[in-house]
Structures are given as C-alpha cells and as structure tokens.
Specification:
globular, alpha+beta, 7-stranded antiparallel β-sheet, 3 helices
Length: about 150
Amino acid sequence: MEIKYETYIAAKPEQVWNILVSKEESSKIFHGCGIESDFKTGSNYAYIGPGPSGDKTVHVEGKILEIVPNKVLSMTLLVGSVYGEHYKNFESRTIYTLEPFGKLTRLKLVNDKIKEGDPSYERSADGGWARVLSSIKSLAETGKPLELAMGED
C-alpha cells in the first residue's frame, strides 16, 4: 500500500529542506518532536520529543536510505514503541522530493512499502500526511506552523 501527496510552497527548496532536517524546525511540525540524525545514508534517525509523562521519547525512528540535500530525503519509518507493541512489525518508507517550480517548491511525499494491517495506515491516509504537508507549507510561507492538536496528526 502507498500514500502519495504533492503540494506547492511559496518558498525556496532550501527553506523547505531546513524544515525537514532541522531539529528545531521539524519540532514545530511534529508537536515538539524534532528529528535527530547525522543525515548520512545508512544512519539512524529519530523524532524525539515529550512523551506521555513529559519525558524524552522516541516517537518515530528508522534509517536514512537516501539523502540529496535540498532534493531528496528517503527513510524507513517505524512508529515508536511508546504507542504500543502492535507497531513493531510495521516498517514503511517515506520519501520527500523537493523540486523548484518557478518561484515555488513542489514537495512530493510518498509513504510506501506499507504492510497490510499497519495500524498507522488509516490515520496517515485519512489526512495525517496532508496535515503535516500543510503545516510545512504554512511554516515555510508564514514562519508559523498550523496549530494542530496532538490527536489531529
């Protein structure tokens, strides 16, 4: 199974890229969970932020599969065990592709290699990724992400 989205952002690819790979900027999109990695092919990454009791928690993790600065970020995606053991066998892949489009950036997202029965599929396909991309667009264009409640991602 796969999920695909595309959006156009009134910002340069470098600005959008920074939102994807900066711990500080990505935390604005993912409810205080910033990405941490050395961003080399084969390296681990994790979105780390406040957990249920306010402690530092890994919410999503995986490996960097491909990285071309300002163009492509491909990585495996595994929902953290903080959400329950039923996620542990459901790794998928996420690919962000950024392309200049006139004065805009075309941001494509593909979340594929999703296994049948993945408990995160329905939420992701039913607007989860659309809200993430909309928040990236808002942050890049206005300096402010969308204000989404934790359960709305």
